[in-house]
Amino acid sequence: MVAITTMDYEKNYKEALKVITDNLNALNEITKTGAEVVNIQTIKNCFYKAFPELRESDKWTPKEIINYLKEKGDYRSCWITWLEKQGEQKDIINNQSDFVDLGLPSGTLWAKCNLGAEKETDFGLYYQWGDTQGYEGTSECRNWNGYKYGSFKKLIKYNDLDDKMILDNEDDPVFVATNGRFKMPTTVQLQELIDNTNHKWTSIDGVNGIEFTNKKDDTKYIFIPAAGFCDNIRCGVGSWGYVWSASCCESGDYNAWSMTFDAGDVLMYNYNRCDGFSVRGVINS
């Protein structure tokens, strides 16, 4: 799904409806968190302009809206699946809607939790680079065996032939899980995080990890747990942490860039794309 900016809504009601139907169940939750990704009233206004007969839609249940769209048919029916899938994506969407302004020069906002996590100290899921399927850290991440895009000897995408260096949206697990609202960070955004925040190794509720804090407001921070990595088994839990970037490594197409950290340092390094690392979402303000 193409991410829609607030400015687009007044010009394209059909696209606005795609966003609206995807968010009907989540509007209240997003508003309660105080972390609105879009202007809720603008969405509702466009919704009413597109479908004036649904002006009282706040009183309808999701099931009633689905039935109404099915009855009307035409392009409205295209968005039924978005609404029906909302229940499956709701938890991930709501968690990834909780972003923090760390005062970065680019205005990038960082998610409070790893993708798949319910709170900041949860590890979340482990992802091989370029794969939207997350794993819990057991034997699913099987090194190069079963990697989505082949092996280090013969990669079928993001290789020397296609010259792709940044993940396509369809291969970005954050973009897919949040229906286009947020994305994985690039190497530039990860390096910006390192260079423009105060960061320290710490422990929250018994979980080791690294804390990045806004230099001008120490109440604004993100905590990334030291979840280790997944390579047949989980390794380094509590000692190391890795966060994939969306960027492939220039020096070897079988590697991709990740931020890595331990008790002594945090830096960018490249690793085999088949390794299972944490993933964190970003959004530009």
Task: Please render the helix and strand layout as text.
Elements: H1 13-23, H2 27-33, H3 40-50, H4 62-72, H5 80-96, E1 99-101, E2 108-114, H6 173-177, H7 187-195, E3 198-204, E4 207-213, E5 221-225, E6 229-231, E7 233-235, E8 241-248, E9 255-261, E10 266-272, E11 280-284
Antiparallel strand pairs: 1-2, 2-11, 3-4, 4-5, 6-7, 8-9, 9-10
Helix pairs in contact: 1-3, 1-5
Brief description of this entry?
The protein has 285 residues and is of the alpha+beta class. The protein has seven helices and eleven strands. Strand 6 (229-231) and strand 7 (233-235) form a beta hairpin.
What does this protein look like?
There is one protein chain. The protein is α+β, with helices and mostly antiparallel strands and 285 residues long. The chain folds into two domains: 6-96, no CATH class; 99-284, no CATH class. It is 25% helix and 22% strand. It contains seven helices and eleven strands. The protein has helices spanning 13-23, 27-33, 40-50, 62-72, 80-96, 173-177, 187-195; strands spanning 99-101, 108-114, 198-204, 207-213, 221-225, 229-231, 233-235, 241-248, 255-261, 266-272, 280-284. The strands form four sheets. A three-stranded antiparallel sheet has the order 1-2-11, with no helix packed on it. A hairpin with a 4-residue loop joins strand 9 (255-261) and strand 10. Helix 1 (13-23) packs across helix 3 (40-50) and helix 1 crosses helix 5 (80-96). The longest helix has 17 residues, at 80-96. It is globular, with a radius of gyration of 20 Å.
